[in-house]
Amino acid sequence: MTTPGTHEFDVLDSELLLEAPIIAVRRDTLAMPGGGSGRREIVEHFGAVAVVAVRGAEIALVRQYRHSVASRLWELPAGLLDIKGEDEISTAQRELAEEAGLAADRWDVLCDLVTSPGFCDETVRVFLARDLHEVERGEAEHEEADMLLEWVPLAEARAMILRGEIINSIAVSGILSAAEVLDGRAEPRGVDTPFPWRPTSLATRRVGPDLKTMP
Predict the structure, then answer these.
(1) Cα-Cα-Cα-Cα dihedral of 76, 187, 154, 56, to 10°?
(2) Which of 101, 130, 142, 212 could form a disulfide with 137 if both were Cys (CB 3.0 to 4.6 A apart)?
(3) Residues with catalytic roles
(4) pLDDT tens per residue across span 106-149
(5) What is the domain extent for residue 177?
(6) Does residue 91 sit in the same domain as residue 64?
(7) Are 133 and 100 in contact (CB under 8 A)?
(8) Could you give phi then psi for residue 91, rounded to 5 degrees?
(9) What distance lies between CA 74 and its chain's CA centroid?
(10) If you write DSSP's letter for every residue of 168-213 in order, what string do you get?
């Protein structure tokens, strides 16, 4: 028996079970401690970014329908890292313009998340955007055509988390991290900070500028 914390979980076999526009599912067979093996299903994802956009004492929140839970959730402006070769800050700037009609002159990194490590490789980088100004907002489609944008006091957003009204994990993490920074208890990181957690498995199988395009 190996010492706990030292075993190498080597991949003995890997099988692609599903290929869809924004996710894939594979099954890996891993070498387990003690000499056995085990299968683990992994949802592959492009990764994403989200933005806490600050205007005075308020932040921008969107309310968007999410069919997985059949509910409209309070969230941060956010989007997939689904453009080939686009870095995280460029995606964040594009999504803030598309979802909120905003640009920012000051950007920082608040936090990085592995959203569901038990079964999914999705990671998210959350940015802080300040010194805002309005830009042209793109035409929305699908769920985003039904999306609401509201300015909410940061203190109220924190209270909404504790009341169970904001339950999106990315929004919870971003709002609480932003409060730490804006209240002077923490320092953000620069936008050039490496993001080693960004998923690669799904993206490397796709071609063309739009990674959602199936091979």
Answers:
(1) -100
(2) 101
(3) 144
(4) 999 999 999 999 999 999 999 999 999 999 887 766 777 788 99
(5) 46-182
(6) yes
(7) no
(8) -65, -45
(9) 14
(10) -HHHHHHHHHHHHHHTTS--PBPTTS--TT---HHHHT--SSBTTS
Return the CATH number at 89.
3.90.79.10
- The answer to whether residues 32 and 63 belong to one domain is no
Q: What pTM did the predictor assign?
A: 0.94
What's the CA angle centered on 147, arms 191 and 19, to 5 degrees? 70
Task: Give the bridge partners for 210, in sequence order.
Answer: 83
By the 8 A CB rule, do 172 and 178 touch?
A: no
Token pair of 206 as six digits: 């796709």
Alpha-carbon distance 81 to 206, whole Å?
13
- Helices 154-162, 169-182: axis angle to 10 degrees equals 140
Looking at the chain, which runs of residues are DSSP E strands? 11-19, 23-31, 37-45, 48-55, 58-66, 71-75, 78-80, 102-114, 123-134, 148-153
